[in-house]
Specification:
The chain has 764 residues and is of the alpha/beta class. Its cofactor is pyridoxal 5'-phosphate.
Length: 764
């Protein structure tokens, strides 16, 4: 979520008043804003997307709740020591959190372990351990519409009789100390992005948030006029009309068997009716196609922790497979491929399959990704129910990612096209008529230059590094992962360095290359990549021959509040994943909206950005998905590129020989070995095209006016990538609610005038 103060002032229309009031008190608002800790309750794009969605849902007047876990420790703080990543605990609640309100009156029990008894009245889950879920509410204000929604985060609490009901009352002190075991559930965020780690505590977290949330949703439904019918038998008939639940990846997939358990075991609905309601309630968003990221929970673990849920999953699977067998008799291989249970070795539950079977809609997050989902990853399911599969291209909130972080640009745009674009970003197309306006071109360039100077000052103050604000700011910030190919950027830095040394007199367009992002603590290769970037920077930045022509910086502890500083100052945005691996990306959109040009592959939302802006206004290079598929078929041989490309050979030889690590010559042998022998993401295959494309970038940068005109064309084409547009599509195509642009009257005005204008609709 990042910081809340400035976003709240902007959405309430209070920023100028507050700035002025604080100034009159002899204080500086920006200094105050810097004191607030980021709420870092997610890992990367997936968590930030949820935050943008909350802002858009409130702005569109949807009755929507965001549910999650109130981690005591969020994503770790990253320190760089001697070029290596070191993790520190993110004690973000140390000084309290003024934005949250604990709601102990809505505390709910969550059950674990135990066993299942089959009685005449149905299954009973007994002898369980209970953990209490305490909700904390954070307000989510819409933009200038007097709407405030709620983000409800659950914290784990031990019941007061925890461990004291048992026979071990003798050790009262130990019993109280053991309360920590229950409360550890909400202690810390697992720091993996795009990687599945099948740990018991993680499964507990996933079930904890799901069980508490569903009880909350059902309590609210029963309290409404729809849930308070006389007949228990028909009470839930209207449930899917009133409630829509969107599963953000498979992490909350246990919600499907949990809702079935509530309907069948507790509310005593017949299975078929319960299943029908469940399917109509849930929709699933897929966020990745990387096989190592897909959740596959061991059956033994689920059986121990959630025995009733395992039975329900088996029953869902049985009925699912019976249906497929009736359509495709004797096709055993299809049954194996489509089963929710994977046999062979340890039996596992494929959570994506559970989500697809248990939802009425499944979507990817960019056109190209949704196609891959339909035609490759889940093709058997798409063949069965093609109408279930949709696309919803991701977006970003223009409130945080333009108004808040880049007020200079936001104001410049408002002067030209008015202020309405903030709620309707498609209006940015009106900027096309100013592409040749010399004054506007100069003003856009001036805002960018001011942002660069400001960021350069910040870097100097915080990291003691001096950079040249007139150099091209070439920025690659995102989680560190092999598929995102920070290594390819690193090879380009080395190549530029070698070119300068080879011919120091030759004209060279000065660059500051900024790479930043966190590596999962257990991801060895990602940590080596960080060390390599820092080792290369050490050499490049201290070579007198290079002087001010080239600087490389690893940006420490990349997070939302730092993104808000670096993105508005960026000239060149690096979006260079191997085609077919980045589901969408959202950083790409933030850079586009803030006046950076993009160098990128035809992957994720880059494809649609090129479609909107025109491919000639982006620096697109490298293999397309088809080329990658063809290369896989043929067999990727890294050696052949190394042998054919002298500059690539030189760069690799330098890494291998210890040129960048003289005290430890074979420090990077794992990295080099990976690049030659098991590089799934084919860095060498795109290296040549990447370097050539970068030459075009430098060439254009020399012509400031032509560069800025291209920037304006990009900003004018960025309207599609508002999360408001994304949420409107979810609302209409999946949740079946209508967004409302009605401004609720402020609380100091009488309400009766607009009493009946609020549309009845689903709560998402």
């Amino acid at each position: 979520m990042g910081r809340t103060l400035q976003n709240t002032m902007i959405n309430l229309g209070l920023q100028n008043a507050c700035d002025e009031a604080i100034y009159q008190l002899g204080l500086d608002m920006e200094e105050l804003e810097e004191i607030e800790e980021d709420a870092g309750l997610g890992n990367g794009g997936l968590g930030r997307l949820a935050a943008c969605f909350l802002d858009s849902m409130a702005t569109l007047g949807l009755a929507a709740y965001g549910y999650g876990i109130r981690y005591e420790y969020g994503i770790f703080n990253q320190k760089i020591r001697d070029g290596w990543q070191v993790e520190e605990a993110d004690d973000w609640l140390r000084h309290g959190n003024p934005w949250e309100k604990a709601r102990p009156e809505y505390m709910l029990p969550v059950h674990f372990y135990g066993r299942v008894e089959h009685t005449a009245t149905g299954a009973k889950w007994v002898d369980t351990q209970v953990v209490l879920a305490l909700p904390y509410d954070t307000p989510v204000p819409g933009y200038m519409n007097n709407t405030v929604n709620t983000m409800r985060l659950w914290s784990a609490r031990a019941p007061n009789d925890f461990n004291l009901r048992d026979f071990n009352v003798g050790d009262y002190i130990q019993a109280v100390l053991d309360r920590n075991l229950a409360e550890n559930i909400s202690r810390v965020l697992y720091p993996n992005d795009n990687f599945f780690e099948g740990k018991e505590l993680r499964l507990k977290q996933e079930y904890f948030v799901v069980a508490a949330t569903l009880q909350d949703v059902i309590r609210r439904f029963k309290a409404s006029k729809f849930g308070s019918t006389d007949s228990v038998r028909t009470m839930f008939d209207s449930f899917p009309d009133q409630v829509a639940i969107q599963l953000n990846d498979t992490h909350p997939a246990m919600a499907i068997p949990e809702l079935m358990r509530i309907f069948v075991d507790i509310e005593k609905l017949p299975w078929n009716k319960a299943w029908d309601i469940t399917k109509q309630t849930f929709a699933y968003t897929n966020h990745t196609v990387l096989p190592e990221a897909l959740e596959r929970w061991p059956v033994d673990l689920v059986e121990k922790l959630l025995p009733r849920h395992l039975q329900i999953i088996y029953e869902i699977n049985q009925r699912h497979l019976d249906h497929i067998a009736s359509l495709f008799p004797n096709d055993m291989d299809r049954l194996r491929r489509m089963s929710l249970i994977e046999e062979g070795g340890t039996k596992r539950i494929n959570m994506a399959h559970l989500c697809i079977v248990g939802s009425h809609a499944v979507n990817g997050v960019a056109k190209i990704h949704s196609e891959i989902v339909k035609t490759q990853v889940f093709k058997d399911f798409a063949a069965l129910e093609p109408e279930k599969f949709q696309n919803k291209t991701n977006g970003i909130t223009p409130r945080r990612w333009l108004l808040l972080c880049n007020p200079g640009l936001a104001e410049l745009i408002a002067e030209k096209i008015g202020e309405d674009y903030v709620r309707d970003l498609s209006q940015l197309t009106k900027l096309h008529k100013f592409v040749d306006d010399d004054l506007f071109i100069r003003e856009v360039a001036k805002v960018k230059q001011e942002n660069k100077v400001k960021f350069a000052l910040y870097l100097e103050k915080e990291y003691k590094v001096k950079i040249n604000p007139s150099s091209m700011f070439d920025v690659h910030v995102k989680r560190i992962h092999e598929y995102k190919r920070q290594l390819m950027n690193c090879l380009h830095i080395i190549t530029m360095y070698n070119r300068i040394r080879r011919d120091p007199a030759k004209l060279f367009v000065p660059r500051t290359v900024i790479i930043g992002g966190k590596a999962a603590p257990g991801y060895h290769m990602a940590k080596m990549i960080i060390k390599l970037v820092n080792a290369v920077a050490q050499v490049v930045n201290n070579d007198p021959v290079v002087g001010g022509k080239l600087k490389a910086i690893f940006l420490e502890n990349y997070r939302v509040s730092l993104a808000e500083k670096v993105i508005p100052a960026t000239d060149l945005s690096e979006q260079i994943s191997t085609a077919g691996t980045e589901a969408s990306g959202t950083g790409n959109m933030k850079f586009m909206l803030n006046g950076a040009l993009t160098i990128g592959t035809m992957d994720g939302a880059n494809v649609e950005m090129a479609e909107e802006a025109g491919e000639e206004n982006m620096f697109i290079f490298g293999m397309r998905v088809e080329d990658v598929t063809e290369l896989d078929r043929k067999g990727y041989n890294a050696q052949e590129y190394y042998d054919r490309l002298p500059e690539l050979k030189q760069a690799i030889d330098q890494i291998k020989s210890g040129f960048f690590s003289p005290n430890e010559p074979d420090l990077f042998k794992d990295v080099v070995n990976m690049l030659f022998h098991h590089d799934r993401f084919k860095v060498f295959a795109d290296y040549e095209a990447y370097v050539k494309c970068q030459e075009k970038v430098s060439e254009l940068y020399l012509n400031s006016k032509a560069w800025t005109k291209m920037v304006i064309r990009n900003i004018a084409a960025a309207g599609k990538f508002s999360s408001d547009r994304t949420i409107k599509e979810y609302a209409r195509d999946i949740w079946h609610v209508e967004p409302s642009d009605l401004k609720i009257p402020p609380p100091n005005e009488p309400r009766d005038a607009v009493e009946d204008k609020t549309p009845n609709g689903t709560a998402a």
